[in-house]
Amino acid sequence: MQIKGFDLVMTCGACPEQYDVFKDGKQVGYLRLRHGYFRADAPDCGGECVYGAETKGDGVFEDDERTFHLTNAVDAIEKTLSASS
Question: 3-state DSSP call for residue 68?
Fold first, then answer.
């Protein structure tokens, strides 16, 4: 899946739903939804949490919230990348 030029690679489909995020072939983020909380870390798992939100879905997004939260996470990662350059 691609959002705003970032490649999101799903590494687990549910419980948790998680993604590695790449820009120009380099990992720049990690996304994870578990127990009703979604977070985006940069540049990878355990890095700085740059976005977080409670969700309706527990270990997988509800259909009406996935695009919203993934886009917000990408925006936050992009902002973090811009600030560090």
Answer: helix
